[in-house]
Amino acid sequence: MTEISKSELRQRLDALIGQPISSGQPVRAPDPVNQPMIRHWAYALSDFNPAYLDPGWAARSRYGGIVSPPVMLQSWTMAPPKLQGIHERGGVPVEIRDNPLQFLADAGYTGTIATNSEFEIERYPRVGDEITAETVFETISDEKKTAMGHGFFVTWVTTYRDQHGEVIGRQRFRTLRFKTGS
Fold first, then answer.
1. What is the mean pLDDT of residues 48-59?
2. Pairing assessment for the beta strands 167-178 and 150-161 based on DSSP bridges
3. How far is it, in rounded angstroms, from Cα 104 to Cα 109?
4. How high is the pLDDT of residue 175?
């Protein structure tokens, strides 16, 4: 564990606000929005909205064709999971080269728990959309005392765009980075 003063920790946290989570922004979805994946999602979640599954119905709807469930936005741009070494990475399904929050772990804030996720949808993704995602740190709270331990609520926002740069939606994702046993 690295000793770091509370003021230095706060300065480092504040410096992250507005910064990208990782390099290589934006992340491009490996595939365009497509009917087979929409169908898999709809069946997995028992969401049989005809706008997702019935081309005839969808063509006559306000959408003009098949659309994706809006909360699928994140799934279109997710990296394929790498299972080898997942235990050593603490359950993280992707390798992180330069974790911008590593200094928190080094300072003893090794616990991580997702607390909530919120979506703002501008429009439904359409079949054929090529989605990109840009993720930046939005807010980092002051240190809080929680039932899990003392820690910081870290919120990032991902903005999803189509191939024309039009915003489709945003997702805010919040985690608690905490000291276990504190």
1. 98
2. antiparallel
3. 5
4. 94
Euclidean distance between CA atoms 54 and 19, whole angstroms: 41
Which residues neighbour 59 within 8 Å (Cβ) at sequence distance 6 or greater? 65
Residue 9, class by beta-carbon neighbours within 10 Å (0-12 exposed, 13-18 middle, 19+ buried)?
middle
Query: What was the pLDDT predicted at 172?
Result: 97
Phi/psi at 181 (nearest 5 deg)? 70, 20
Q: What are phi and psi of 7, to 5 degrees?
A: -70, -40
Query: CATH number of the domain at 4-28+96-176, out of 3.10.129.10, 3.40.50.2300, 3.30.300.10, 3.90.1150.10?
Result: 3.10.129.10
Residue 139 is predicted with a pLDDT of 97
